Amino acid sequence: MTKTSWKPGTMLYPIPPVMVTCGTMDKPNIFTAAWTGIINSEPAMTYISIRPSRYSYEIIKEHKEFVINLTTKETLKAADFCGVKSGRNVNKFQETGLTPLACKKVKAPMIDQSPLSLECRVTEIKPLGSHDMFLAEIIAVNVDDDFLNADGEFQLEKSGLIAFCHGNYHVLGGKVASFGFSVAKKKSRKQKIAAIKHERRLLKKNKQDHFGKQKSPKKTYSHSSTSKAYIKTKRNKKNSFNKKAL
Fold first, then answer.
1. Which of 169, 178, 191, 104 has the alpha carbon at shortest distance from 140?
2. Would you state the torsion angle of the CA atoms of residues 162, 165, 168, 174, taken in this order, to the nearest 10 degrees?
3. Rounded-to-integer distance, Cα 34 and Cα 17, Å
4. What are residue 93's phi and psi, to 5 degrees?
5. Closest to 55 measured CA to CA, from 92, 94, 23, 86
6. How many Å apart are CA 131 and CA 101, to the nearest integer?
7. Of 142, 164, 187, 220, which residue is 20 to 30 A from 84 by alpha carbon distance?
8. Strand arrangement, sheet containing 45-50
9. Which residues touch 240 (CB under 8 Å, ≥6 apart)?
10. Where would I find the beta strands (DSSP E) of 144-203?
11. What is the Cα Rg of the chain in Å?
């Protein structure tokens, strides 16, 4: 295998094109960023790098808060729009049809249509050159209930997540393996059959929960209809008694 060496560049792909929300519910803004990622586990920390010339730069610098919203196939057009238009000139929520939702911990809104929104609080700003890095602690995670299965597990892979690679957008494909698979012990035939049966039971349960039969509505009676039924029953009993007497 031969390789060609290029000059230094931003070629670490794929990366997530996230929609970053900032400001307040009264005056919100969105911009799309690709320079982001996780930098620590405990506490959970992330970052976004922003050019100082961007409209959102001063907003985040002032409020010290922002929200990272993941992009899906359905929200890709809106995300692309938010990456090429400036909040100085347009209201991006109005233009894209995205819906702002109030967060639990920060004043900036999250995006209703995003399957996952991370509320972040800035801890440090590091000038790097073309961009400044906003280091932030993740103080709350908001997930879309539509992607929770019957066991409460978050199935983010079913949301149609988007990856950005060398100027193009790609929808993430299906699962190929789980973390640690390279050293995991092989399951016996019996364990594989048990796992398949378990998955089938969960699938059946999910279908029943989603498409389950609706309960028949309880019958209601008006006072007049109840009275008529009572009188009719009493009359039938009286007639039956008279026949026996005869």
1. 104
2. -40
3. 5
4. -65, -45
5. 86
6. 28
7. 142
8. 28-33, 18-23, 65-69, 116-127, 132-143, 45-50, 36-40
9. none
10. 162-165, 168-171
11. 29
Average pLDDT over residues 122-151: 96
d(CA 30, CA 86): 9
Query: Cβ atoms within 10 A of the Cβ of 108, count?
Result: 25
Q: Report pLDDT digits (tens) over 158-213.
A: 999 999 999 999 999 888 888 898 888 777 778 778 878 877 877 776 666 655 54
The tokens of 37 are what?
């990622």
Tell me if 102 sits within 8 A of 24, measured CB to CB. no
Q: 32 — phi, psi (to 5°)?
A: -100, 135
Bond prior to 43 in cis (omega within 30° of 0): yes
Q: How do beta strands 36-40 and 45-50 pair?
A: antiparallel
User: Contact 58/121 with Cβ under 8 angstroms?
Assistant: no
Q: Which CATH number is 18-171 given?
A: 2.30.110.10
Give the pLDDT band of residue 236 (cuts 50, 70, 90).
low
**What are the extents of the domains in the chain?**
18-171
CA dihedral 54, 58, 61, 64 (to 10 degrees): -100
Q: Could you give the 3-state DSSP secondary structure of residue 239?
A: helix
List all residues 6 or more positions away from 28 whose beta carbon is below 8 Å from its beta carbon: 21, 22, 93, 100, 108, 109
Q: What is the pLDDT of residues 75-108, one digit of tens each?
A: 999 999 999 999 999 999 999 999 999 999 999 9
31 contact partners, CB below 8 Å, separation of at least 6:
19, 20, 22, 50, 54, 55, 56, 82, 83, 87, 92
